[in-house]
Fold Transporter substrate-binding domain-containing protein.
Amino acid sequence: MKLYLLLLFIFSPIILFSQNSGTERRTILENHILRVGVREDPPFVIKGIDGTFYGLSIDLWHMVAEDLHLVYEFVEYEHMPGLILGLSRRQIDISANPMPVSSTRIRQLDVTYPFMTTSLGVVVLKDKQDQLTIFFSNLFSVGFMKLLFTLVIIVCLFGTLVWWVEKKYNAKDFRDGIEGIMDGIWWSTVTITTVGYGDKTPKTTIGRVISMVWMFVAISLISSFTATITSTLTLNQLEAKIKSVSELRKMKGNIGVTAHSGAESYLLKHQINPSTFSNPNEGLLALESGKIVAFVHDKPIMRYLIKERNGEDLFEISQANFKQNYYSFFMPRNSKLYKKINSEIVDNIDKDSWHRLLKKYNMDEIN
């Protein structure tokens, strides 16, 4: 008994110190306030009138932080380069602003699992012309006139050929001189339109063989011509025509992008020098005022902003998908919380609550 009391007297200070030390470490960990970098960038980060932040990525961060019992505060940045610099210098612990993943950023920072995949789109002004004006502008367009001229040339060639074969043996239907040539062109026109008046008919064997060839050629030719006319004179102006980078390069006027964005890098890579704006809303204003002819940015973000501005009747987004972007959270290199936060992101984007968030911010149509 005396031995037990002696040992208890010797080791109790050590045990008490160990317990106090562990409690102190837990208190420090629990009281550590994470600094979360943010920059206003709807719909991911939106700043309310009262100065609070909300948005798609902010709400996702709330879900992650709640699951991990993290204490945090938001640190606002005006520009994206400042936010990235803050991460590099460990002035903040994580960026709640999602950024496109690039090889440079992967080398410099820790990149979480991407919670969203988007693609670049081109925003242009909708054509405000009335349907009659559009019809006549298409009717007298260079493409349509070339098509019509080609058809006239083919009709004249077959008509002249039949006249040249028939004029010696069928002078009644195919006369000499200019009048006879016009007889041949009349015959080929009546044949291609399948009217079939029968007032001019080849009599010679060669003439009839040419006529048979012309009839079969006319069937395929008139079908192709009709389809082309339908597409050329279409009145549907609801979709942007930009389908490739080469078409962007041929546009007459400046093309806008958000500064330091994936869209800017993409256009510069394809030898297009764009006009830069601090945010997409400034780009839309420039597009509306005519300072630029197109604005390139992530399609779901532009769809959200256009809807928020009630600009569906003013702007349209190309159906073509350009460069794909993978959006992730970024953290300083070798962050101790990286694995835990990354796991929570993967878990949360599989939940129904995440899909409700996408719908809430009009981001459920990703492409």
